[in-house]
Design a protein that fits this description.
Structural class: mainly alpha
Strand order of the largest sheet: 1-2
Radius of gyration: 24 Å
Number of helices: 9
Helix content: 40-55%
Largest sheet: 2 strands, antiparallel
Length: 220
């Protein structure tokens, strides 16, 4: 069909058929991927390590910036140098904005101390599954590369160990260091993509960390 359309680009009937076939092909591929994923989850549901390994391997890699242009109009293509340039630029944004803030004429800080205490009830797998289901379906991921859609697919298999971890964190008043890591990504604002100042920093955290945070927010 593609070959026919290429030979007859102005044929509307061929164009419509080609468009319909493309849609059908996408649906077929998506369905095949879904069935393959479900089979892998079923085969590994009793093997936690193998299941997590498959979850990580199923995550897509995001498109990387291949080149940028410096103030001296020099084109940089080395990945490490590009990262260093963005890091230097983004790390100074806060200070630049802070210098533009006008301090109020009078400011008085008031501290409020509560004499009341509260108790956090432990969670269970059912609550964790609800939290996972509430995650927004986005392609963005943190440093671990695990998408929210993947977590939703395996929520029945991972809810119990995550519930154990969440309860442990609240009991010991700690948060896993691995979940504190944020990945800073440059988000293009407009105009020339190769200019560093045409990008703004966005911090992406792990979707697993969002489960902990969402549950904490619900309790508080």
């Amino acid at each position: 069909m593609y070959a026919k359309l290429k030979k007859n680009p102005n044929n509307e009937e061929l164009e419509i058929k080609h468009s319909e076939m493309k849609k059908q092909l996408r649906k077929t591929i998506l369905r095949a991927k879904q069935e393959y994923f479900e089979k892998c989850v079923e085969d590994n549901q009793n093997e936690t390590e193998a299941l997590w390994r498959y979850v990580q391997n199923s995550s897509k890699k995001e498109t990387q910036i291949t080149s940028i242009r410096t103030k001296e109009n020099r084109v940089v293509e080395d990945e490490q140098e590009i990262s260093d340039i963005f890091n230097d630029y983004f790390s100074g944004i806060g200070e630049r904005y802070a210098n533009e803030i006008t301090e109020p004429a009078e400011f008085r800080e008031e501290k409020i101390h509560s004499q009341e205490s509260f108790f956090l009830f432990p969670t269970d797998s059912e609550e964790i599954e609800k939290v996972i289901s509430s995650l927004k379906s986005r392609k963005s991921t943190g440093h671990d590369g695990i998408r929210s859609e993947v977590l939703k697919q395996v929520k029945h298999e991972i809810s119990e160990p995550i519930a154990y971890l969440v309860n442990n964190c609240f009991e010991k008043a700690c948060f896993p260091d691995i979940l504190k890591i944020g990945t800073i990504k440059p988000l293009h604002k407009g105009e020339d993509k190769t200019q560093v100042n045409n990008n703004r920093p966005v911090t992406l955290i792990s979707n697993v960390a969002k489960i902990f945070e969402k549950f904490e927010w619900l309790l508080l």
